[in-house]
Design goal:
Blueprint (H helix, E strand, L loop, with lengths): L1 H30 L6 H18 L4 H30 L1 H23 L15 E3 L5 E3 H23 L1 H11 L1 H6 L4 H26 L7 H15 L4 H21 L4 H15 L12
Length: about 290
């Protein structure tokens, strides 16, 4: 039964990794930007929620309502003011810009909050769960996170396929010049994509902060998990991010079941195996879908 529990926990953990990976996949799929500050943005969202909760009587879930829209607006402005200019120069410049943003965020958080760990207080929900039997228990928070991952992916899928902005976004990801010729404002489309990506990474950062402590140095590890989930699932595939997150989560929990020291290593090994034998990912896609 312990192996069954490890499988269940791995699948639920995959929902969190899928949330982290959605924004990274969207930005790469639409703009071909690999956002190296992705993990640090998640940590920044967690600290912003911590500050909101400390300064107001709002609880953690109300802090989500505040922080996610703020991050969406931040992403829109950052794309129009910074990322768009770097895109006009070269793809390499966007890597340098996002790397610089990562360094700035980490040092800013260290300056303001120090290196101490923090946690978002959600009361007894952090330890409550649905007990199936003596060996299997499903955390309510993990179930909520997994459900949110599915809701976000379905919402993005509907947005990209049904809305006018979403269809223009997909067209711009295939051929920016052709999309511009038919009247698309690529700068606005890219900014909307970045706003959505920032909103999803903020949500991922908050869900992570509700289940674990966090500190300013945790950004790079969140980026690695998101990147691995994207690559395993398949670049440009939103459902691939969910599958990739689940595979990564399963690898970690099953590895830890064999030996606790294999928790992280087993996930990295699966990632390298996919790169070696199926570099297109488990669900490859030619365009964002």
């Amino acid at each position: 039964m312990t192996w069954v529990n490890a499988i269940v926990q791995g699948i639920l953990l995959g929902g969190l990794y899928a949330l982290f990976a959605c924004g990274l996949s969207l930005m790469f799929g639409v703009m071909r930007i690999v956002n190296l500050a992705h993990g640090d943005l998640a940590v920044l969202a967690a600290f912003l929620a911590y500050s909101v909760m400390s300064a107001t009587p709002l609880g953690a879930f109300w802090a989500v309502v505040v922080v996610v829209p703020v991050f969406a607006a931040f992403g829109y402005g950052l794309q129009r003011g910074l990322f768009q200019r770097s895109l006009a120069i070269s793809p390499l410049s966007t890597l340098l810009v996002t790397f610089g943003l990562s360094v700035v965020i980490q040092n800013l958080l260290l300056q303001i909050y120090s290196a101490d760990t923090r946690a978002l207080d959600i009361g007894s929900l952090v330890s409550e769960g649905l007990r199936i039997n003596a060996n299997i228990s499903l955390s309510y928070l993990a179930l909520i996170t997994f459900g949110l991952a599915i809701v976000v992916i379905v919402a993005l899928q509907v947005f990209l396929s049904r809305s006018r902005t979403g269809r223009i976004m997909r067209a711009a990801s295939d051929d920016q010049e052709a999309a511009t010729l038919v009247g698309a404002d690529s700068r606005h489309v890219y900014a909307v994509a970045t706003a959505i990506a920032f909103a999803t990474v903020a949500l991922a950062g908050l869900m992570f902060a509700m289940r674990s402590s966090f500190d300013p140095s945790m950004g790079p590890s969140r980026l690695i998990f998101a990147f691995e989930a994207v690559v395993i699932g398949g670049l440009g595939s939103l459902w691939g991010t969910l599958l990739g997150g689940m595979v990564l989560g399963l690898a970690q929990t099953l590895g830890a079941q064999l030996d606790p020291t294999l928790l992280l290593l087993s996930g990295h090994i699966i990632f390298l195996a996919v790169l070696a034998f199926r570099p297109q990912g488990l669900i490859p896609a030619r365009r964002l879908a």
